[in-house]
Amino acid sequence: NAGVTQTPKFQVLKTGQSMTLQCAQDMNHEYMSWYRQDPGMGLRLIHYSVGAGITDQGEVPNGYNVSRSTTEDFPLRLLSAAPSQTSVYFCASGYRGSDPRGTEAFFGQGTRLTVV
Amino acid sequence: GNSVTQMEGPVTLSEEAFLTINCTYTATGYPSLFWYVQYPGEGLQLLLKATKADDKGSNKGFEATYRKETTSFHLEKGSVQVSDSAVYFCALTSGGSYIPTFGRGTSLIVHP
Questions:
Q1: Mean pLDDT in residue range B7-31
Q2: Fewer CB within 10 Å, N side or C side of chain B?
Q3: What's chain B's average pLDDT?
């Protein structure tokens, strides 16, 4: 069972370039989300989705776009990369389940992005 | 809104020492509480959870008790090992949202 798969694992971009970070899950989870992890800042929510065709902004959405055309995939697009977007990006998925209060998030391995 | 506050790290301990990592929260409604662990170079994984007041979550020797009266969910382990070195995140879900809110994380370093 693959779980949550993120690609690429590492990426270096030049300022102004665009790219898409891929995230796919094979657990049929309704919820998917993107976080960025920066030293001393913990995980900050960028965008999230509660189902196919539905997305919403998190705490730090500026400079990023998302779409959710299928249950499995939730790509994160950087439109014009900036050095401030240098970070480690994590994708996560979750589900309502029979006990919605107890469901946890499942994380990918992360993408380390450097913008120069 | 929801928020989670964790003690600052790094926490440095010798092997077999007692561990406490403090976590307090603010939430709308009645939250579920989680501890996640991140080993070097990896994503986060669930360590333990509790969904109602006075519940105790436990796993791999770690424990945390959901204290509604003090809005706390402190992580404890009686005897840490070098392999416990990692970053620990306290998190919550609340208000009908299943997207967790995380604390800033606490780095634990255990020396032999």
A1: 93
A2: C
A3: 94
